[in-house]
Design goal:
By secondary structure, the protein is of the alpha/beta class. It is about 20% helix and about 20% strand. The protein contains six helices and 13 strands. Strand 5 and strand 6 form a beta hairpin. The chain binds zinc ion (ZN). The site of zinc ion has 6 residues, from helix 3.
Amino acid sequence: MSVKLKSLSVLALALAGGLASTGAHAATALPAGVAVGTVPGGEKSISSSVFDITINFVGGLTASQQSTFTAAEYFWETMITGYQIAFTVGGSLYEGPTINAQGTAIDGVGGTLGSAGPTTAYSVSDGTNSFAYVDTGIMNFDTADLANMEADGTFFDVIVHEMGHVLGFGTLWNTDSIGGIFTGTQNVYTAGSGEYTGAYGLTAYNAEFGLSETFIPVELGGGPGTADGHWDEADFAGGPLDLMTGFIGAPTPAADAPFAAMTLSATTIASFADIGYTTAVTHAIAPVPLPAGLGLGLLALGTLAGVTRRRKAQV
Ligand SMILES: [Zn+2]
């Protein structure tokens, strides 16, 4: 059975409240071609950047649920390694977004599951490139659905997926609709087109799956919240189980640990470089250490490459 992730990815787009800031470090241009797992030329400033998510537990989450949010935080802090345009806020190097996480009783199991997305963002430009970087986000869930997901084993998968939306996947692909100070920042997708064209993601996609496509297929079905914000369930070459497709099924042996019902593609991680991050796939300069306490395996780059090979064999 497949459950639509639609209502979990409802956005709280109050992005115009973000503060403008100017890049304090040298720009890194998008390379014309970047192979998965290699170092793009010229991207040398990443050691000056960091990526550290802060989660504020606002209420309504058990200790067990909070620990899963923290594991999802570690996952993303391993896959996203920094900002292509490092910048300062209040005189300090900006290290990453703050997410308010909350559980509230809404309507029991099913129905409205909650919402997740960026709420404020910075517009950052170095004169060559401009990006909208999430500053604050929310992850609000119906406690009945949280308990249900814990029971069926998909909780970690869903929290990682939703945190991906907070960080910009499908939510900050095209900032034209936001306008204002975000004019001129990233635009890697046109709503309704079904065609993701970000260079990092597309290059990784073709490399990972042996293709020569001009776009990555994006979901157009499922209605608002699912359409235009996920890889296409049917046509994405990484298959319907990928972390950032719009539907989730039951736990399956085909999943990639630490996920129970999902698989992880290099393409998905690489796409975060299109919205201004440095990633473990696109900007690796050294093996990525496992975060202390994660205890879930998988996250080193070599393992990620292994995932790629396994997933090709699944096609
Ligand atoms: Zn989603």
